[in-house]
Amino acid sequence: MLLPKEHISYQAQNKIREMLSPLEKLGSIHYFSYGVNYPDGSCFTLHTNSDFYESWFEYQFPLCGFELPKGWHSWSTHLPNKQIEVANELDLGCGVDFVNHKQEKTEIFSFASKPENFRVYDFYLNNKHLLKKFAHYFIENAADLIHIADHQRVIPLPSMIRGNMHHRDPLLSQETHTASNDIFRHNLLNNLNYPFNLLSERESECFNLMIKNYSIADIGEELKIAVPTVAVYIARIKQKLKCKNKKELIEKAHEAGLVEYYFT
């Protein structure tokens, strides 16, 4: 499913980049998109990166506005791994979405930085009000673009619409059923300091057991989750903490004073 290059989603991206420039200078926000989903399944998105937008349709990624509850959601807790991989290849990462359900539609505001800029989570945490002000600013100043986009709605493929929460990926369900403020919990969880505060609640639980020398099977049994699911969490932990293996994870924990021993 490809949109013509004359579509407003392509034509508007330079103007949206200009509107985003103050946030880029202030908080290293390099990506923004404004999406609207309607009950009939139609939608539109205005964005700053056409390559990332095209990948949604190329890989048939699910459109989050149809399923996520209102509030803030980090990309790491609800986007498919492949979508995060594509974003990283385009030098985008550490993203968050703000979902706002209204009676007649759902709005999704997305912000992202660079894949390695984990400190942007602190910016999100401390500037919720600013990001919401930017959202209002965008709606007011991009009214003409939004009007055109609303008349050029896209009908996504059925596989991209996951509106029934009961049909969701179990891994995503575990992390997002109380996710209205999950991105902010990342920075406060267990009073850990950066970069450990980037871990989600479930990731932190897995990490805490791992540095106690629990095996993947032991972690799964302790937390009552499947072994493959534990493996996915551990892969995310390694990515966030920039560690290649369990030994490096334990060494990082040791350096932070979380453990007083090494396992070999």
CATH architecture of the largest domain: 2-Layer Sandwich
User: SSE order in H/E notation?
Assistant: HHEEHEHHEEHHHHHHHHH
CATH top-level class of the largest domain: Alpha Beta
Low-confidence stretches: 164-192, 260-264
The amount of helix comes to 40-55%
- Taken together, the total number of domains comes to 2
Strand order of the largest sheet: 2-1-5-4-3
Count the DSSP helices. 14
Q: Distance between the terminal alpha carbons, to the nearest Å?
A: 51 Å
Mean pLDDT: 82
CATH superfamily of the largest domain: Transcription factor LuxR-like, autoinducer-binding domain
Structural class by sheet pairing and helices: alpha+beta
Report the count of strand segments.
5
Fraction of residues in β-strands: 5-15%
Radius of gyration based on Cα positions: 19 Å
Give the biggest sheet.
5 strands, antiparallel
CATH fold title of the largest domain? Beta-Lactamase
What does this protein structure show overall?
- The chain has 14 helices and five strands.
- The chain is α+β, with helices and mostly antiparallel strands.
- The chain has two domains: 8-170, Beta-Lactamase (2-Layer Sandwich), CATH 3.30.450.80; 188-255, Winged helix-like DNA-binding domain superfamily/Winged helix DNA-binding domain (Arc Repressor Mutant, subunit A, Orthogonal Bundle).
- Helix 11 crosses helix 13 and helix 12 (216-223) packs across helix 13 (227-241).
- The longest helix has 15 residues, at 13-27.
- The chain is globular, with a radius of gyration of 19 Å.
- Mean pLDDT is 82; it is low at 164-192 and 260-264.
